[in-house]
Write a structure and sequence with these properties.
344 residues, Rossmann fold, 16% strand, binds nicotinamide-adenine-dinucleotide
Length: 344
């Protein structure tokens, strides 16, 4: 099969390219490198750097030419602006990439006969849901910008599937963790941040009381499901979750044990949560404190019965095993980075 992976230089996209290549597919990646980096494309058995084109999913000249030339069987749209505060700070760019970029791809898939598009969606769109575990077809619509960009994107996926008989699957990822998780960006994901701070023997700063619970999925389990869904006809939305959630305190305790550290974390109030984004608090209308409280204390737990029943999928990696693998990879990456910096 010939497959296009967008966001190929990102945490999930790079590993998806690798899994597809190992299966024997011909893989072409694109990325605009706004967040991704080439390190995510180096694997022991293959280097994808040469297979990834620097291109934007919103491109309306070179990207159509690529689709016309390559005749992709499957497109995985993994590109996106993932950090919540980045989307909140620049909503126009967030909608432009996460929603309009997806529509650009849907239209190119339609014109060139792509057999299946798989969209990286998110369980963040369940932010206002109160029933757990949350099922795919019954939830209150979201409030914040990031989940709305993905929620609107899903409406367009359904529109293209219904209007043109296209096959589109939206995978609603829970919090994804695994090697290559970006621990260096302005607002790193919780798992990457926690490990980085422990690696440097610093006191990590968390928010609220640490009892807030979220569900997680290990990247290999996510990719396993992503490879299974492409035979399905029509539109589908699927939760990609372990259906088990953990509190901040529980995950931190596991990480401390695995890394042999004994450091007490600091817990801030929620107002401090997006301190690196003062623009959200300023302006004529600052972000409402209740919205921040809700986001920080949000409980998430997604039902994964649909993925199991329809696709015969079963997550394989326990949180202990998964965290151990991330810790090993992240510590090795930080050590190599520090050694390179010391040489300069
Ligand atoms: N990581 C998670 O926990 C999680 C959870 C739910 C959903 N998702 C979604 O999964 C996808 C991948 O997440 P990730 O954690 O790998 O993020 P990431 O930031 O590591 O990867 C995203 C990649 O997309 C690229 N990109 C951004 N805008 C682009 C554009 N306009 N054109 C081409 N490339 C562009 C970035 O450079 C980056 O390499 C995102 O769409 C994200 O919203 C992630």
């Amino acid at each position: 099969m010939k497959v296009l992976v967008t966001g190929a230089a990102g945490f999930i996209g790079g590993q998806l390219c690798h899994a597809l290549w190992k299966r024997g597919d011909t893989v072409i990646g694109i990325d605009n490198f706004s967040y991704g980096n080439l390190d995510n494309l180096h694997f022991d058995d293959h280097d994808f750097a040469a297979d990834v084109l620097r291109m934007d999913i919103r491109d309306r000249e070179e990207l159509p030419a690529l689709f016309e030339r390559e005749h992709f069987d499957v497109v995985y749209n993994i590109a996106g602006i993932a950090p919540l505060p980045d989307c909140q700070s620049d909503p126009v760019e967030a909608v432009s990439v996460n929603t309009m970029g997806l529509v650009n791809l849907l239209e190119l898939c339609r014109r060139t006969g792509v057999k299946h598009l798989v969209q990286a969606s998110t369980n963040a769109m369940y932010e206002n849901e109160t029933e757990f575990p949350t099922v795919e077809d019954k939830f209150n619509p979201p409030t914040l910008i990031y989940p709305n960009t993905k929620y609107c994107g899903e409406q367009f996926c359904r529109s293209f599937a219904d209007t043109y008989n296209m096959n589109v699957t939206c995978l609603r990822f829970a919090n994804v963790y695994g090697p290559h998780i970006d621990c260096l960006r302005k607002q790193p994901p919780f798992v990457g941040y926690m490990i980085r701070e422990l690696y440097y023997d610093r006191v990590p700063e968390f928010h609220s009381d640490g009892n807030q619970r979220r569900d997680y999925i290990y990247v290999d389990d996510l990719i396993d499901l992503a490879l299974r869904v492409t035979d399905r006809k029509g539109f589908d939305a699927v939760n990609v979750s372990s259906n088990t959630n953990y509190s901040v305190r529980e995950l931190y305790a596991i990480a401390c044990r695995l890394m042999h550290k004994d450091i007490e974390a600091k817990y801030w109030d929620t107002a401090h949560y997006w301190a690196k984004y003062p623009e959200l608090y300023g302006g004529a209308y600052g972000i409402r404190p209740e919205i921040l409280d809700h986001e920080v204390n949000k409980y998430s737990l997604c039902d994964n019965a649909h993925a199991k029943e329809l696709y015969g999928w079963q997550p394989q990696v326990s949180i202990e095993e998964g965290l151990a693998r991330v810790i090993e990879a992240e510590c090795a990456m930080l050590a190599a980075r520090d050694a390179a910096a010391a040489k300069e």
